[in-house]
Design brief:
Blueprint: E1 3-5, E2 24-26, E3 31-33, E4 59-61, H1 69-80
Antiparallel strand pairs: 1-4, 2-3
This protein binds iron/sulfur cluster (SF4) (2 copies).
Amino acid sequence: MALMINAECTLCDACVLECPNEAISEGDDIYTINALLCTECVGHFDEPQCKPVCDPDCIVPNPDFVESADELQQKYEMLTA
Ligand code: SF4
Ligand code: SF4
């Protein structure tokens, strides 16, 4: 399941450099995660790297991108092929 950023984002910029897939960017009002690039860090790390650095804890699962661990692994392999 890709992650997403909700409206509590304070635009602090802390998460951007943590993402190994360069999935996070500055949006119009809040930062945004490209769900097509987010593997929940599968393939790179055991845990999502963006979530622990987010003070408002506004990085949450994206209900529109429900993916199993296997699907996230396949996504990682496609992104790095
Ligand atoms: Fe990037 Fe990992 Fe956060 Fe997804 S979970 S946005 S891949 S740092
Ligand atoms: Fe927004 Fe959290 Fe990223 Fe800061 S770390 S830019 S508050 S999503």
